[in-house]
Design brief:
Arc Repressor Mutant, subunit A; mainly alpha; Tetracycline Repressor, domain 2; 11 helices; globular
């Protein structure tokens, strides 16, 4: 593969994003550095700057990939089904996002910092993927629930996703603090939270 070819560039970027994803499974965003990411790749750390200028750009690329994969699933859901009940759609979208826990974890982070520290072209690439996910869910609502206000569904559902991870996943430190504070609080699964939201937005009918 010739040096500098589009294929090499894509391969290198994918390797960097994969390295970031691997580290993010055991480390926090604040802990991870460009040096850490470079140590997991097959090339030198300084080479990363040929593809991403900041750590935030790498995380934005990771979130972009998650949105692209989820949008593909939503498009497949619309293509493979002639009709769906509220119950079956809520079940499908909840299971889909349950399998994309990493996307929900990324959504719980500070987007303003990630976007502010990314170049305009990187941010545009991300917004294209985000927009495609909006369109994919919107297409499902139009096809399966034509009487539902699709823009209201989008307006409520997508901001809602930013809070799913903190309400479904907690560290032992967080759980201990809630017990000490004597909070009347019950953790729910990703599936339960999303299923309940979708059912309410669709009128709660099965």
């Amino acid at each position: 593969m010739p040096k500098g070819s589009p294929e090499l560039t894509a391969s290198r970027k994918e390797e960097i994003v994969n390295a970031c994803e691997k580290l993010y499974q055991t480390m926090s965003f604040k802990e991870i550095t460009i040096k850490d990411i470079g140590a997991v790749t097959s090339f030198t750390r300084t080479s990363i700057y040929n593809y991403f200028q900041t750590k935030e750009e790498i995380f934005l690329a990771l979130m972009q990939r998650e949105y692209e994969r989820w949008a593909d699933e939503m498009n497949t859901l619309a293509a493979d089904n002639e009709n769906m009940t509220a119950n079956s759609f809520a079940d499908a979208i909840a299971h889909s996002l349950e399998s994309h826990e990493q996307l929900l974890k990324l959504l719980a982070m500070n987007h303003y910092d990630m976007e502010e520290n990314s170049r305009p072209e990187r941010l545009t690439e991300f917004k294209v993927a985000y927009g495609a996910s909006l369109d994919a869910v919107r297409a499902c609502i139009v096809k399966f629930f034509p009487d539902t206000d699709r823009e209201n569904f989008i307006f409520v559902f997508f901001p809602f996703l930013f809070g799913v991870y903190p309400y479904s996943v907690a560290t032992e430190k967080q759980l201990s603090a809630m017990r000490e504070a004597k909070m009347d609080f019950k953790m729910h699964s990703i599936y339960e939270i999303i299923y309940s939201c979708v059912m309410q937005l669709l009128g709660g009918t099965k």
